Amino acid sequence: MSSVPGGKPLPVRKPLPYRRVTVLGAAGGIGQPLSMLLKLNPLVSKLSLYDIAGTPGVATDLSHINTRTEVHGFAGDDQLKDALKDADLVIIPAGVPRKPGMTRDELFDINAGIVKKLVQAIAKHCPFALINMISNPVNSTVPIAAEVLKVEGTYDHTRLFGVTTLDVVRARTFYAKAKNLPIEDVDVPVVGGHAGKTILPLFSQATPQVPLSKEEVEELTRKTQDGGTEVVQAKAGKGSATLSMAYAAALFAESCLKAMNGEPNIIECAYVGSSVTDYPFFASKVELGKHGMVKALELGPISKYEQTCLDEMKDELMGSIDKGVAYVHNTESEKIIESLK
């Protein structure tokens, strides 16, 4: 024990279990604020930042923040291996953002190639790391990642997560504001996918539970589904949801880190491979553990309106999943990857 002059002995602070986190796409609009939030997280011991360019500067900037997390910057294909070495958690915000009038699905051709290349590297250099996928369209990029990992012989559905936390954050915010509730007490599970009508907030399961009219439920659902578009339009061509996405990604990453360190009863919504529904990938509540997902939780009772929304998302969600799976086995994808080098 240490002590101050003339004072009582001070207890020795036990070191926290530290983890190594890698951010792929760290110099971008989401990557930079996300990296800063991770630098402030005491559960992160080493933070590796990777992008095609600019990351050494981002890393140097963040390294001046007086927390114990070590920060290292890596750039270019030659340094991807070093960025991934010994990573416990890999977060992927890499890719181009949406522009006004652009849907998440229109990002597919570019971002799919980036994701495929990065996941191939993860399979080779840190095959047991948890993967948090942010790159849009998540409904397709998670299936792409799964197929790549299958090809590489390292797929484990319990370690691959599509980060849908921003949908939960938005649903909580809009619900609390609409009903004048203390925001810190509010929770709203969001299931389905991470684009348009595949985003389904379950206000019937919200806590605290307060009465909502049919019109209120429909309006809050629409507002949650259109949250990303609202930001794109408000930024008038100068970006998409970067700060709120970084915040949401940091929340989910922290839950993963806590669970990896043995903290029990960590429940988050995420887009994962599961058998909760007939979809091979579906966003629902999942229990996190030391090695990833312990289990995906059943949907539970939902309202008639929510069941209708669930039925109506089928074609769009399955189409996005099938498109991602097919992409990995399409030789044309190799041309896109080559064009990115």
TrEMBL record:
Keyword field: NAD, Oxidoreductase, Tricarboxylic acid cycle
EC number from the UniProt entry? 1.1.1.37
Which major enzyme category is it?
oxidoreductase
- Ranges for domain Lactate/malate dehydrogenase C-terminal: 164-326
Listed under GO biological process in this entry are: malate metabolic process; tricarboxylic acid cycle
Reaction it catalyzes: (S)-malate + NAD(+) = oxaloacetate + NADH + H(+)
| Domain named Lactate/malate dehydrogenase N-terminal: residues | 20-162
Q: Which GO terms describe its cellular component?
A: cytoplasm; mitochondrion
CDD domains reported in the protein's UniProt record: MDH_glyoxysomal_mitochondrial
Locate the active site: 194 (proton acceptor)
Superkingdom field: Eukaryota
Q: Any idea which positions bind substrate? A: 98, 104, 136, 170
Query: What InterPro entries does UniProt report for this protein, alphabetically?
Result: L-lactate/malate_DH (IPR001557), Lactate/malate_DH_C (IPR022383), Lactate/malate_DH_N (IPR001236), Lactate_DH/Glyco_Ohase_4_C (IPR015955), Malate_DH_AS (IPR001252), Malate_DH_type1 (IPR010097), NAD(P)-bd_dom_sf (IPR036291)
Q: Which residues bind NAD(+)?
A: 25-31, 51, 111, 134-136, 245
Q: Name one GO molecular function term.
A: L-malate dehydrogenase (NAD+) activity
User: What quaternary arrangement does the UniProt entry report?
Assistant: Homodimer.
Q: Which family does the entry's similarity section mention?
A: Belongs to the LDH/MDH superfamily. MDH type 1 family.
Report the protein name in the record.
Answer: Malate dehydrogenase
